[in-house]
Amino acid sequence: MTKPIFVFSDQLLSYKFSNHHPFNPLRFQMAYELLKETGILSDDQIVKPRKATDEEILLVHNKDYLNAIKKAGLGQLPESLRSSFGLDTDDTPIFKDMHEASSWLVGATLTATEQVFEGKTKKALSLGGGLHHGFRGRASGFCIYNDSSIAIEYMKQKYNARVLYIDTDAHHGDGVQWAFYDDPDVCTFSIHETGRYLFPGTGNVSEKGAGKGYGYSFNLPVDAFTEDDSWIPILEEAIDEIVKFFKPDIIISQNGVDAHYWDPLTHLSLTMKSYRKIPELVNRAADRYTEGRWIAVGGGGYDIWRVVPRAWSMIWAEMNGIELQGTLPEAWLTKWQEKAPVDLPSSWDDGADLYPSIPRKQEICDKNHVMLQRTLQHIRNEKKSV
Amino acid sequence: MKVEAMMKTEVISIRKNVSIEEAKKLMESHRIRHLPIVDEQKNLVGIVSDRDLVLDRIPNQKSPSDIEVQSVMVKEVITCHPYDFVEELLSIFYEERIGCIPVVKDNEIVGMITERDMLYTLIQLTGAHQPSSQFEVKVENVSGRLADVTAVIRNHNVNINSVLVYPGETDVTKVLVLRVQTMNPIPIINHLKSEGYNVLWPDTSGEFV
Ligand SMILES: [Zn+2]
To answer: pTM for the full model?
Structure first.
């Protein structure tokens, strides 16, 4: 039995727009230290990432964009060109050496990919990745290079793999979906808060793929204020049926944790109960259908103090077959409570009184269930007709 | 926007003596639901939709390969011009309950516009095809309110993808629907609220305020 691997190095903490930007790499360090303090991350499981090459970035992005990011990071991109690449906005401002920082994140997810395909491990975690809004020629939604799209294209070309991408971030995984929209060898599935109000606005249930790729994009938009009790059963049904239908060689899961009730940018009402369950469902699907092969990446998560470290630790625990119960390590709490502007929760699970009850609960639940039926309709119909 | 900018210019058309069977095959292979019928000079003489070709609407026992489309085609066709405004077409689609309008210039058919094309144009008008967040601001129905709201957004260096103005429940109010190109509209929303605006955006209490 091989042991799961964890991709980490300090270079991955250099992807930072500014001190007040919501996307803060400190959360990755906090998660890393939490795992260390808990004693479930041993040094022999940590693999240092390599940096992605230009050639690898060009698997998905175009050359003009790559050059623009390089120049921007050196302070040499003229102002008039910035907006056409999505740069110089509040979401994706220019920062020093942004090309290098972004290449490290891509390299981390590629390192995870190589570890799995070269047989060194079955399961790999690259929490620096998961930048699912990155487009071919445009930065968007805090994302520069799309590490998951690049890794998927890399797996396809180098290892001839059929890839299932599962995205449980609160936002639609638009960058990855559009990159493979007409590709029948890559299946994308995104569950997210409806785009009625929330960024990026896409991820409608009717987006099912195009051309030869029709039927290989799945979207499950859920209502604002969706809770664990609705999210978990529909996600379970969706993953089970999609993995059975697609029969992938590997699963890559994006683990944005911004659907938590405490997340400031979204309107969903999940708790740690869901963040325990999501990796469990993905791991089970991998064990049944891909001989255990599973790459997990990070993603969104903007309550960096109370949510991200605990939720991301759950992925690593699941990969290693460990159950985290009770309270968080005292040393970790002491260190980070000093820096945190909010009271840190002291246990792995959230209390039942995290938030007041949601008045439209039943209605939301029913609507989500109807949506699930529409998401899976075309594969359910196919099954009947066989 | 002009019709010219959104019409399909590759028009599949037929002659009036083509059989219904052939017309049907053509529709299926091109995945279209309407076929304009033209004469030698490419002048439009009629149109058939897939519904016109349904067998039980066709007289007596003839087989579909023996009936020519001219016996079932609609002869008085509603058409438009490439320089017409898309907004005008919308009301024609709505009032006439039709699915397709041929675009005619100098008597010659130069394009087609379907209901589906119109819907796509509407999607573009709402800005929902580009990554963006949406919120709504309920304002008094007096002049200058839209400028006030967009001035606040300008302060945040955020691009506006679209603005729609809906009539309110009464004449006293209007609702501005804005799609902004940012994943984090919360600073803008807080700013608008601090200036006394009524912003509609999902609230953590589980209701929309
Ligand atoms: Zn997100």
So the answer is: 0.86
